[in-house]
Structures are given as structure tokens and as C-alpha cells.
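Lab notebook, bench 4. Still working through the backlog of constructs that have no structural model yet. Next entry is a single chain of 281 residues. Request: give me the C-alpha cells for it.
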Amino acid sequence: MVDQDGDHGQVIEDEQKLVRKMAPHLQKVMIVDSATSSARMLAEHMRGISPGQTFHATDGKTALSMAGTVEPQLIFVDIGADHSDGIDLIRKIRRSYTACRKAPIIAIISQPTAELIMAARDSGVHEFLRKPYNTRDLLRRLEAVTLRQREWVEAMQYVGPDRRRFNSGDYSGSLKRKSDLEVSDQSRIDQALRIIKSSLLAIGADPAQALRSLRAQAEILKTSGPKVGNTVLTEAASVFHEFLVDATENGVLNPRDTLVKAGPLLALLPKDEPRPVAKAS
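Model written out:
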């Protein structure tokens, strides 16, 4: 005879343990939704899970300002019929200088389409929550963004969590792509070098994001070099990082000087990758 009451009690106990683990990451939550009623319903769900603070913004402009003052640990963005406002907000948060720019963002959608999912994914969301949802659906998304953190990508065309959904080290199921199973330090190095190349080419168009992207890649290379025993890479990354720190402090990123300083790193690009060339001034 199956003890169903015992099984149910174990499920409740497991959920309570999960909530306790997540609680420190749910103290300040921002909900962006033009519909007050649905925002209130989500806030009630969250209060039932964790006694943190919830903040509500009805539009992107208000939300961006609120993000800078509240510094939420988690952000929900309802992507309604006019989804461009929500996606634009997510992109602006990711490219902002607010303390919460890397905070998990969960996109709430009622009518998911492949186009909408891809657009939201490319704007920098962590997870999706489809309406209608229940507490268990919400708990699964919260667990994913608070306890299964993904690597951060700071590039030119994309800023946000690693877009490979199943890249966590504890997942090895059939849905995990082969490339995800074989992530190595060398693959991270190759990706960082490619992002450096694209960032150098975009300095003129977006110098602020180029500088932030270059610094992020230099930091990755500084830590990855020793892991693969590449002293040339480690030294070149350290010199380049120091140059970028100075550029940040001075507020000036000279394209030609940056290309020269990046030269030793560009020389380490995979053989099939063309090198950026400085234009004559």
C-alpha cells in the first residue's frame, strides 16, 4: 500500500527546503506589468514563497528608473501584445550601468511564438513563465535563476546569460547539446578572443559597450590562461587588462592604441579568424 500522505508531506518538505535556499536571492523583486491586477497576483504568489519586498512598474521608462534606485535581485517583465516595449526594456537594463544589470530576468508571456521567444532570449532574459501559471511553475523558474546560475556573456551584439539553456554542470540529459557537454577552458578562450575582435571593430559605433566587453574578455583570459598552462596568453591578457582599466579611469579609449595593445591576443585567434586592421587616420 502506497503512503500517499507521506509522499505529499515529503514534497512539501522538499519545497520548503528549496524556498529557504532561494530566499536570500528574493529579498527585492521588481515586477514590470502594465496590468495592475496581474502584477498584484504575481506579488501575492511571491509573498507566499518568500517574505521579500516587491516593486511594481507599469511601463519601461518607470521600470528603468526604478531599477537604478531599488536595485532588485530579480525582475519579472510581462511581455504582452506590444512586446517591443518589454524586450527593449530588457535590452536597456542589460546595457545599463545599474547594479542590477546582471539580475535574473524572467519574461512572462501569454501567447508564445518562436519569433517572440527568440527576440526575448536575444535581449537577455534568463527564463520564461507562461500564463496561466501556478505556484509550482513559478518555483521551477525561481529555482533555475537563483540556484542554477549561468555564465555571463558581455559582447557587442549580446549582453546577458549564456543562451545555452542546458549549460549547467549538473544537467546531462538528452536535451543537452553535445557542444554544451564539451565546454572547456580552451573553448572559453576562443570565444573571448572572438568577442575581443568584434569589440575592436565596433569601438567607433559604441565605445562604452566596446570597453566593457573588452574588459570582460580580458578578465576571462587572465583566469583561463593559467588553467591551460599558456603563459603567453596570461601575460598578454594581463597587460591588455591594465590598459583597459586605465582607459576606464581616464574615460578615453583610443581605437588605434587599443588595437596595438590587443595585438598579442589577436595573434592567438584560431587560424581561420581574420585579424582586425587599423584604418589610416
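Notes after review: The first helix runs from residue 4 to 22. The chain has two domains: 25-149, 158-281. Flag for follow-up if needed.
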